[in-house]
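Onboarding guide, step 5: your first structure request.
Type a short instruction followed by the sequence, for example:

Predict the 3D structure of this protein.
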Amino acid sequence: MARRIGSRYVALKILGRGASGTVWAGEGPEGPVAIKLLREDLASDEVLVARFVQERTALVSLDHPAIVGIHDLVVDGSDLALVMDLVDGPDLRTRLEKERVLSPAMAAAICADVAEGLSAAHAEGVIHRDVKPENVLLDTAYGQVRAKLTDFGIARLVDAPRRTRATRIIGTPDYLAPEIIEGLQPTAAVDVYALGTVLYELLTGWTPFGGGHPGAVLRRHVTEPVPGIPGLPAPVADVLAACLSKAPAARLTAREVGERLRAALPALAGLPRFDVPAPDGGGHPDRGETPPPLPAGVVPLVSGTEMDASRDTHTNLARPTFPAPPIAASRRRTTHRKRRGRAVAVLSAAAVLVVAGAGWWIAGRGDDKPAEQQPVGATQSPPASAPAQGAGTPASTGAGDRAARIPVWDKWAQLPVAPVLLVGAPAAAQPAGAATYVVQRDGAGQPWFSTGDGVKFSDWQKLPVFKAAEDLAVTAPAAGRVDVLAVGAADRFLYRCSFADGRWGEWTRVDAKTKVAGAPAASGTGDRLDVLVRSGDDLMHGTLAGANWSGFRKVHQGGIVEQAPALTAGAPGAPGTLDAFVVRAGDHALLHMTLAGGDWREPERVGTFAAGGRPAAAWTPGGGLAVVVPDTSGRLTGAVAMAGAWQPATLSAPAELPAQEGAAAVGSAPGRVDLYLRGPNGRVQVAPSG
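The system replies with structure tokens like these:
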């Protein structure tokens, strides 16, 4: 049953319930959202509501692809809600419960994502304080697993000043840093410690100090060394040791963790999952195995001689200061909640003794994460993986190379004169069985388009009113559909205008977080649209699957880039692959990168020339991959990948190009590639391949 949340949002479907409230899938002015509706007793707390208002700017401003963004904080009568990104995928705890351990490469990649999100938050002065698998969502909607850290601010907001006492600890026992247990103020280092614990758990199936009752868990954090992982490559072992150091000052920063784990990924590729016994030498109670007896001389912190067999230390051990809601069923917590009967009494006794002996209460399981945040409607299936290619090998179809030949562009014709002066480089795309669409902007940023067959073209017409800051991108993902991408002049965010059902729609904002520098590049297939942009000096990749936008993520393999990128769908017969071309900053080298199996490959250099403008790329009918780009002297140059090697393209441009401009390349019937550029007279010109 739909429920209105404030004046802008509608909650449509419950995704999960937890200790602090209920998570819904909903709709807002900009599309699907997740809405965390906090309990009514929290909404009635004036101190908490005031804290929400104070924290709103800091939380909403956290902008990073590895953070589940908070769109809004809603205070409306009895409703107190956080409006967040809707993530298509389960949380990390769900995946661990299914697989127990992950491959080293997957574990490192997930933790690198989380580390990058933490680094962005720490730079804004925000500490998470409850990093754990329950608070990591795995976005699987775009053919690759991307980790997103959620629940920033929940622990701080719910534990408002009058709720938080010096005798309480905010966090989850298995992931608590030693300095928190000893009563020190938290710093960014506590998040790094928790992330190291998560990485250890992903690799082994165990947290390094977990197991037994929570008092023992706390003691181990402070006094015991980290159990080793036999066979773990040194780069990752070093990261773990630094993250789990007892001394906060000895730990890496979150940024350093992310960088080191990314650098270690090649060494982890293909390594099998580890099979590590429990740190205490006992069995795993979740699998029905018996834990070991107490070592000689060890006195339990609760009465009785038998250790608590439950590893359910992911529990709110605080004596509640407000009535707790009934525990609702949740798919990812079924195994934990089967053990609650006897464990509740034991854990309560443990909590009392911890207060007497240590002077602190432990707060915050934060069981408020849904089992899965699923979007309303169908889920995009991951694309099929392409055959593996070695680094530096141009993507190709194999058999098609034998029939391929080097295209020649030497005969140029002019498109009709536009009613305004067009500026920049054109972009072009051809829907299946339809005319080619050529788009370009005028000096005021207004987009225009013309259609034709490579020989004859229509007069130029305006697209819906818009003011673009950069050159446009255009792609034809399906028959009868064309998507034009533009960077808004007012805010430098990415916008889209689509042609479907015989008419152009209105411009809609695709992304509201990443400022774009330079023109976008796009490639669409079916209901999937991939976009590459440059933000600052970084190359960023985002995917729009239906109405679900992934957000932009940094492509680390691209390094520091200049100029706008080029993007085209991968080789025919290799669905789900992409080919990108970027210009490396410093030496102006043109680099080729391939996305296959959800990961970007290491780049290779194309030719020895220095690129001076925006590249363009398209597949030739014979199976070659052609790329053209202005060099630093303004002349159009290029290369074609044939039979696994790059060869110079045959180009005869009509004249020198204006500085920093490029061309457009599009595969066109019958069996050719057409190049488009804006000549010195301001008219767009076309050259079919011969």
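Each response can be followed by summary notes, for example: The chain is about 20% helix and 30% strand.
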